[in-house]
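During the no-cost extension, the postdoctoral fellow (Dr. R.K.) reprocessed legacy sequence entries with the updated structure-token encoder. One reprocessed record is reproduced below for audit purposes.
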Amino acid sequence: MSEQQTDNLSPLQGEALRSYISDSYRKLEKEPVLYQWNINHKQHHATFMGVAQFFVLGALATYAAGQSDLLFSTTHLIYMLVVMFIAISARYLFAPNQLYHYHITAKGFFYTQQDNIPDIAFTIARGLGWFGCGVCVLAAGMLGPAAFIGAGASALLAWKIKDMRPVKKHRGCLFTPNGYLKIFKRKDALIVCSEPFDAGNFIYLYCQQGEADKVLNYIYPYLPNHEVREVNSWREF
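Re-encoded structure tokens follow.
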């Protein structure tokens, strides 16, 4: 079960599972390390998220401008510039690259995971969010009430990110005899899921380019009964 899946559990269940995964990390980090690597992984949906947000907010801005006969005016172009910055900021704040440090031991994996977001990005994004609010308020007199759609989005973004900071997560995943191994070689990505499936024995492994086979050679001996599934797309993965 992944970190995202634990968030869908009840608070009590989710906290118990996260505690189990953290305990596994502490136990495994005492084991001799067979192989380790770092990787800066770009989430596969990140670009789509930024583009989609730009077009949605841009469509709202264009609709508001069209309603007030200010389409392609200076005010509208400024508004679109703000929308562009909001979309870019949202991509790097809500779908950032992930920094992983993986370790393989004879008993399982332990790793750390952290958003790859420098502090300056939060400062810039907060400024852009409040700047967007100011522009939308000024534009409201010219564009009408519809301009507050953009102002609301900017204010929500600024409020949401004002206290955000990168958090390093510590995770562990134990080897068990049964389960499945999913392989996406074209992207050097693996999933190891071991029984019992609800006990935190689930891990995404993002390998350095061309090193998926190397990682597989290390873990195959510890997964004797795992079903191997090869996939060709992120959707199958």
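Residues 56 and 162 are 23 Å apart (CA to CA). The longest strand covers residues 108-115. The remaining legacy entries will be reprocessed before the final report is submitted.
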